[in-house]
């Protein structure tokens, strides 16, 4: 088959090529595709900020991959009759002993790059989201028009605005929102402060236990009513929305798939390990942020923070990534293994460590961690360094770059190279 | 935040038809598009010469767009081979290859801030060797 090739003298520059990975192709070729499932999003319109591609559930980062080849995109067309020669043009074309051309292609655009698409983690954009601490006059838009006392202005009045303003998919946005303790107060989106979230969780647990509600099947309404019983006529920060935030953060929705239409009957199962961990971190911050404490004593303090009779099992391993240990044991015995019951908790002391205070430089961070605790179990160390593994190496390989790995019995012990 | 949706409306039916059954290599695509890649520059005139009439130049789109015939392409779809004659002196040998990742051809409309998926390209014709003379 021979084809005449033509090109526009002036090429169209409005075409771009986008790599379509199988999942992107699936979305675009789905018969249900309505035209709004895939969106390009960027934080700013100045062409400088990163662009991402978002579906309802996933996010892809977009990278411009330049090349120096000539890539010509052509389309089939029928040449217009040339008035000067009576359609005989085709016969005069040199065919170099090839069959006579039966077709005509026209080059209409030339591309110098492709957009590479890579599945990535979409990030919620919290730039315009203020923090709510339970104050009474927060966002009283009759008076302050969306202005918080500290001057931070929220422009976002609902979740769809937040999703629209975040470089991530709707699903990722909602998941992160729930995990971070996102809420809507007086018609504005905000995050509950850590302190207020703790208080709210405590109030929810107390009320749920007092009313003997089923912790595996809570609804927002019955939980809110249980709390409201104990509150007088005055201002209570523990609103329906706050209760919902607590259930979203510390519970799992178990009825979403069954009955999407009626959101009021959405049921939640409280996530006891997650709640136990939250109280554990509070205990670390409260009791051992400046100096260490014997582990068995710490466990008692931890237990004391819960509402009385709250059913939970405490295990220091739940607080990995939030503490380090000092051991009085002789070196030869090795690192204390907290994953089983063999160790003597009175010989181990724990202390809080905030990840926010650690260097983002891997070498420095490892150094600091070894200055606090000379030998680490891999499971204890990994949460502290995981975020620095930006190239996605295997945990063992990443750690081996900065520290010494040694087998002691069946365990792997990490220590400083020095 | 700037957000732009990708619409696929006009090629929806076609994408469906082509998904069913055994898919044959089609150069061009069912929608008539072809991707041609040459390792190197392809020099093309920028304007229509005014000094002498040249049958290679013509008009497209009701005379709105100047176009030039720059070569002849011969395709052997069975053997997946291609020969490209550029002008009267150069010849390129190439092949039809399947793309590792299909490419979506997108048209960006700056005035309406819309992006349309115009076609999905699965194959390209690539010429990666040096040009040969035409005997």
UniProtKB/TrEMBL annotation, chain A:
<dbReference type="GO" id="GO:0000775">
    <property type="term" value="C:chromosome, centromeric region"/>
</dbReference>
<dbReference type="GO" id="GO:0035753">
    <property type="term" value="P:maintenance of DNA trinucleotide repeats"/>
</dbReference>
<dbReference type="GO" id="GO:0000785">
    <property type="term" value="C:chromatin"/>
</dbReference>
<dbReference type="InterPro" id="IPR019128">
    <property type="entry name" value="Dcc1"/>
</dbReference>
<dbReference type="GO" id="GO:0006260">
    <property type="term" value="P:DNA replication"/>
</dbReference>
<protein>
    <recommendedName>
        <fullName>Sister chromatid cohesion protein DCC1</fullName>
    </recommendedName>
</protein>
<dbReference type="Pfam" id="PF09724">
    <property type="entry name" value="Dcc1"/>
</dbReference>
<keyword id="KW-0235">DNA replication</keyword>
<dbReference type="GO" id="GO:0031390">
    <property type="term" value="C:Ctf18 RFC-like complex"/>
</dbReference>
<dbReference type="GO" id="GO:0034088">
    <property type="term" value="P:maintenance of mitotic sister chromatid cohesion"/>
</dbReference>
<dbReference type="GO" id="GO:0034398">
    <property type="term" value="P:telomere tethering at nuclear periphery"/>
</dbReference>
<comment type="similarity">
    <text>Belongs to the DCC1 family.</text>
</comment>
From TrEMBL, chain B:
<dbReference type="GO" id="GO:0035753">
    <property type="term" value="P:maintenance of DNA trinucleotide repeats"/>
</dbReference>
<keyword id="KW-0131">Cell cycle</keyword>
<dbReference type="GO" id="GO:0034398">
    <property type="term" value="P:telomere tethering at nuclear periphery"/>
</dbReference>
<comment type="similarity">
    <text>Belongs to the CTF8 family.</text>
</comment>
<dbReference type="GO" id="GO:0031390">
    <property type="term" value="C:Ctf18 RFC-like complex"/>
</dbReference>
<protein>
    <recommendedName>
        <fullName>Chromosome transmission fidelity protein 8</fullName>
    </recommendedName>
</protein>
<keyword id="KW-0235">DNA replication</keyword>
<dbReference type="GO" id="GO:0003677">
    <property type="term" value="F:DNA binding"/>
</dbReference>
<dbReference type="GO" id="GO:0007064">
    <property type="term" value="P:mitotic sister chromatid cohesion"/>
</dbReference>
<dbReference type="InterPro" id="IPR018607">
    <property type="entry name" value="Ctf8"/>
</dbReference>
<keyword id="KW-0238">DNA-binding</keyword>
<dbReference type="GO" id="GO:0006260">
    <property type="term" value="P:DNA replication"/>
</dbReference>
<keyword id="KW-0539">Nucleus</keyword>
<dbReference type="Pfam" id="PF09696">
    <property type="entry name" value="Ctf8"/>
</dbReference>
């Amino acid at each position: 088959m021979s084809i005449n090739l033509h090109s526009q003298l002036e090429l169209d520059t409005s075409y771009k090529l986008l790599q379509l990975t199988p999942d992107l192709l699936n979305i675009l070729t789905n018969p249900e595709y309505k035209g709004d499932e895939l969106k390009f999003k960027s934080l700013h319109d100045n062409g400088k900020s990163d662009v991402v591609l978002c579906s309802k559930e996933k996010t892809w980062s977009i990278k411009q991959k330049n090349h120096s080849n000539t890539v010509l995109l052509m389309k089939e067309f029928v040449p217009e009759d040339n008035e000067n020669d009576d359609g005989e043009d085709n016969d005069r074309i040199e065919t170099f002993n090839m069959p006579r051309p039966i077709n005509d292609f026209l080059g209409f655009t030339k591309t110098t790059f492709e957009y590479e698409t890579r599945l990535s983690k979409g990030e919620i954009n919290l730039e315009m989201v203020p923090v709510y601490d339970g104050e009474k006059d927060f966002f009283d838009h009759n008076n302050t028009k969306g202005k918080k006392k500290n001057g931070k202005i929220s422009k976002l009045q609902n979740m769809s605005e937040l999703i629209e303003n975040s470089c991530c998919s709707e699903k990722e946005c909602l998941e992160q929102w729930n995990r971070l303790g996102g809420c809507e107060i007086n018609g504005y989106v905000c995050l509950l402060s850590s302190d207020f979230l703790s208080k709210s969780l405590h109030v929810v647990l107390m009320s749920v236990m007092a009313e003997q509600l089923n912790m595996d099947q809570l609804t927002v309404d019955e939980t809110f009513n249980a709390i409201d019983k104990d509150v007088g006529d005055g201002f209570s920060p523990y609103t329906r929305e706050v209760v919902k935030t607590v259930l979203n953060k510390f519970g799992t929705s178990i009825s979403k798939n069954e009955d999407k239409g009626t959101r009021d009957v959405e049921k939640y199962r409280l996530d006891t390990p997650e709640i136990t961990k939250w109280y554990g971190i509070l205990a670390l911050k409260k009791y051992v942020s400046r100096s260490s404490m014997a582990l068995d004593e710490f466990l008692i303090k931890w237990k004391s923070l819960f509402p009385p009779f709250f059913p939970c099992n405490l295990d220091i391993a739940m607080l990995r990534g939030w503490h380090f240990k000092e051991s009085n044991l002789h070196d030869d015995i090795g690192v204390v293994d907290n994953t089983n019951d063999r160790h003597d908790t009175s010989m181990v002391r724990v202390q809080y460590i905030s990840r926010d205070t650690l260097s983002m430089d891997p070498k420095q961070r490892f150094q600091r961690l070894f200055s606090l605790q000379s030998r680490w179990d891999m499971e204890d160390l990994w949460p502290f360094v995981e975020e620095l593994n930006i190239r996605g190496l295997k945990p063992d390989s990443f750690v081996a770059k900065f520290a010494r790995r040694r087998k002691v019995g069946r365990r792997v012990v990490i220590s400083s190279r020095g | 935040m700037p957000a732009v949706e990708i619409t696929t409306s006009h090629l929806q039916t076609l994408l469906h038809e082509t998904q069913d059954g055994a898919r044959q290599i089609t150069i061009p695509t069912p929608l008539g598009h072809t991707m041609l890649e040459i390792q190197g520059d392809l020099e093309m005139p920028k304007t229509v010469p005014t000094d002498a009439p040249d049958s290679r130049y013509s008009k497209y789109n009701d005379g709105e767009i100047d176009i030039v015939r720059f070569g002849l392409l011969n395709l052997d779809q069975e053997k997946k081979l291609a020969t490209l004659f550029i002008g009267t002196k150069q010849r390129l040998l190439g092949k039809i290859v399947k793309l590792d990742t299909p490419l979506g051809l997108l048209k960006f409309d700056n005035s309406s801030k819309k992006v349309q998926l115009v076609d999905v390209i699965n194959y390209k014709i690539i010429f990666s060797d040096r040009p040969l003379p035409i005997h």
